[in-house]
TrEMBL record:
Main subcellular location: cytoplasm
Coiled coil: none
This protein's name: Ribosomal RNA large subunit methyltransferase G
Species lineage: Bacteria, Pseudomonadati, Pseudomonadota, Gammaproteobacteria, Pseudomonadales
This enzyme's EC code(s): 2.1.1.174
Name of the gene encoding the protein in the UniProt record: rlmG
GO molecular function, one term: nucleic acid binding
Organism: Pseudomonas hamedanensis
Database matches in InterPro entries: DNA_methylase_N6_adenine_CS, RLMG, RlmG_N, RsmC/RlmG, SAM-dependent_MTases_sf, Small_mtfrase_dom
Amino acid sequence: MPLLDTPFAQLDLIRQPEQQNEPLQAFDAADEYMLNYLAAQQPPASMRVLVLNDSFGALAASLLGKVDVSSSGDSYLGFLGLEKNLQRNGRAFDAIRPIPASEPLVGPFDRVLIRVPKTLALLEEQLIRLHGQLAPGAEVIAAAMVKHLPRAAGDLLERYIGPVQASLAVKKARLLIATPEAKAPDLSPYPSTYRLDEPAIELRNHANVFCRDGLDIGTRAFLAHLPKNLGGARVADLGCGNGVLAIVSALDNPQAHYTLVDESFMAVQSAAENWRAVLGDREVIVRADDGLAGQAPQSLDVVLCNPPFHQQQVVGDFLAWRMFQQAREALVVGGALYIVGNRHLGYHSKLARLFRGVEQVAATPKFVILKARK
């Protein structure tokens, strides 16, 4: 893999989660463009720089020791990437305090470097939170590959920060440079809410939650076929999102014990709030993690999962396959993984390579619900 080579540093970077023969880099031309732009300003070491949505730490790792850098984002895997890439390049991880997107920012910042996220609601929430956190003379610089840069990103910068200047494209990447101007604070439209009819519950969804404005059709198909009569089973909702699968399951299984895991800090925040709203002080574990990587082997009886089929803009089944492997490791012998997936993804054959028995629980024209027993 090529090195990220900028005036700040030359770094050997890896993506997260790691996979053999990784075809993709842990950085792109948008990272290089933003770092080169900042380097041309000859920033002093005292400059406070906030990095937002740094996929695997390319920006923060480059800037460490050159400026006073903070990093915030909604991806546990992103922070794991930052930690591993700092170690890989002989740098101390504790020199940067990662700030989950669910936590407030503490400025003032002289520069804000933003990788434009796939979910523009996350960008909007982050820009709203920058109000009052920018130093005099600050700049807010957003970057993306041109093919992933919607016009709405510039509109949001203009609305919440100030006038925007678009750069020329370099290596198919572009910068949007916003000059802050005095604006009244905006009330965030997040979290948003929606209601289920059966069971009759309301769910809160912070800005980066998948299907924030309504229940996705895969989960809707899954809810009617969640396992019942679980007794005191230990159940994990893997990739929990707003927690809807675990919450509905918990209502039907009052003695079961639940763990909710997601790599999105905003999803975990939403799931915890929704659990409390629906189930009060019933015991639960809710955590941000790399799937079930932190789960003890053979410590679960049931895993519920609506697996993702993309990581940021990259589409594929690598994450789902890894989640299936993690579930198998965490389940006791005789335990079961229940999933919902699009028919065309062929999860049945993939699960059959890991589990001793795979059966179809139900199907719709678009989705299948599968049970895989260890």
